[in-house]
Structures are given as structure tokens and as C-alpha cells.
Design the sequence.
């Protein structure tokens, strides 16, 4: 519906020899509600195979560390789904749901995967359980985070991401944070000068973090920081940052009061809050010249 945002999140359920199961959850959030609430729209699981980029042969996946009972339960449920897929391919379980008895199925699984750890009670019951974590009703209303994978269409002939493409994603993240904060429609008013400290290439994952730094009478400033994760690494690399200014508007696109203020709590947010006024004055002065 109008003013709804879809929040797509993914997490690793289990890692097998050369494949990974990812659970994807899609939540709906009404950006105009006074209190931030989310509801789960749908969930699903995807399986990816780890391939060598040159030979296209499967590679061994790094192990997944599980510390909580819920993480172990998700892994057991993923193992069950993996074995059911294999059983379906072999004819043990048909696609229409007709299968052999649970006892026969489990015995067949143990023959196929003698080295896997089996919890028979888990194998019989976890397939009926869906774990949905509680979503806080009052999540952080100042921020928005999005992740993008750089594909060939996002890059030039050197496989380096277009600066304009990254700026487009930054504006999207900034607008989401602004709407979530003001609970009103916003339009982009300005973007401060931007430079790219590091390059991002095809295959890299970009993490964009937007946070409202300060709200004025009818406008608000949003800071967006971008980090890049190269394939096969877990250490983020800072690439660039920028400040976007948005104007709050009504349905007729007339400017309206934002109606709320930022309350910085950390040293960094307090610094951004104070410097936002200086940046605004510089923009107004530049506009008047």
C-alpha cells in the first residue's frame, strides 16, 4: 500500500559442504505511523552453491558458528529440508507430498548421510516449526540500512561501479530514513559535494547506512555512509559518505513543518548534529550568491 516500505532481510540457517541455506524474511512497515511497527509478510529459504569463479566447480564452504539453541534448531531444520530435497530427487518423497513412513525416511537419511549428526526428534518436529523473532515496536526511527550487490549493469568497462549508481542508492536510503523520521513525504533539496575514497567493483556488496543528523523547521539532513565488502572477505572498507537535505511536503507538494527533533545520544551523532547547522548555513549562503 501507499507509504509502506518492505524490509527484506536474510540470515544463514545452515552451511553444508558446498552449499548454504539462507532464510529470507519480508516485513511490511508503514512509514507514516506514529509508532514504528512491522509485520511479517512472507518467508522463504534459498539455497546457494559455493562455486569457483573460473572453473565453476563447487568449493568447500567455511563452517558456521552456532551458539544459541535457536541457531542450532534452524540448522537442524535446514538439514531436514536438504534431506527431503534429496529424497524427492531419488524418488523417496514425491513432489505431491506422498512419501513413506517417517521411520523408513529417517533410516534412508541415515544411510545416505552416515557422517551427519542426526537428532531423530528434531528431524520429525522441526519441519513443523517456524521461528519468527519478535520485532521491537519502537525500532530506531532515525536510521535506514540497505545492502546492494554490484552487478555488471551497475559498472563501467573496468568493472568499477558508476558513481551515479552509488549516489542513487544513497539517496534511496537517505529518503527512507527521512520519511521514517518525519512520518511525511519528502523531496530531495540538495546533496553536498561527494568524493569516493575507494572503488567498488562488480561482485562487491555495498552496505549503505543512513541516519538523520538534524531536523530544521521544514527540512532535515541525512548522512549516508557506504562500506564495501569484497567477495570472500568479512572486513568492511569505507568507500564514501554524503549529506542529503530533504524538504517535508504534503500531498500537494507544499512544504510543511517536520514537527519533530533529533536527540543525539552518541559523541558522533552529537558532532553531526552541531555541524549540520554550519552545513545548512553554507548551503543557504551559496544559494543566495
Sequence:
Amino acid at each position: 500500500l501507499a507509504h509502506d516500505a518492505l524490509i527484506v532481510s536474510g540470515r544463514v540457517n545452515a552451511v553444508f559442504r558446498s552449499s548454504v541455506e539462507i532464510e529470507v524474511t519480508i516485513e511490511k512497515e508503514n512509514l507514516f505511523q506514529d509508532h514504528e511497527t512491522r509485520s511479517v509478510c512472507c518467508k522463504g529459504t534459498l539455497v546457494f552453491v559455493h562455486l569457483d569463479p573460473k572453473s565453476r566447480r563447487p568449493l568447500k564452504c567455511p563452517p558456521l558458528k552456532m551458539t544459541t539453541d535457536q541457531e542450532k534448531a534452524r540448522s537442524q531444520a535446514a538439514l531436514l529440508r536438504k534431506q527431503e530435497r534429496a529424497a524427492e530427487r531419488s524418488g523417496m518423497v514425491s513432489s505431491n507430498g506422498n512419501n513413506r513412513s517417517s521411520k523408513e525416511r529417517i533410516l534412508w537419511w541415515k544411510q545416505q548421510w552416515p557422517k551427519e549428526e542426526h537428532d531423530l526428534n528434531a528431524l520429525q518436529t522441526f519441519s513443523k516449526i517456524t521461528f519468527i523473532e519478535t520485532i521491537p515496536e519502537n525500532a530506531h526511527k532515525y536510521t535506514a540500512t540497505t545492502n546492494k550487490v554490484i552487478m555488471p549493469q551497475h559498472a563501467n568497462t573496468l568493472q568499477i561501479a558508476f558513481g551515479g549508481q552509488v549516489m542513487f542508492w544513497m539517496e534511496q536510503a537517505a529518503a527512507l530514513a527521512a520519511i521514517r523520521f518525519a512520518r511525511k513525504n519528502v523531496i530531495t533539496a540538495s546533496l553536498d559535494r561527494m568524493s569516493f575514497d575507494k572503488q567498488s567493483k562488480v561482485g562487491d556488496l555495498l552496505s549503505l547506512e543512513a541516519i538523520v543528523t538534524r531536523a530544521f523547521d521544514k527540512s532535515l539532513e541525512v548522512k549516508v555512509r557506504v562500506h564495501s565488502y569484497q567477495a570472500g572477505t568479512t572486513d568492511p572498507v569505507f568507500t564514501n559518505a554524503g549529506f542529503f537535505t530533504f524538504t517535508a511536503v504534503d500531498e500537494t507538494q507544499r512544504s510543511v513543518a517536520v514537527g519533530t527533533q533529533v536527540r543525539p545520544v552518541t559523541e558522533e551523532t552529537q558532532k553531526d548534529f552541531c555541524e549540520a547547522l554550519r552545513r545548512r548555513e553554507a548551503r543557504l549562503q551559496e544559494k543566495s550568491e
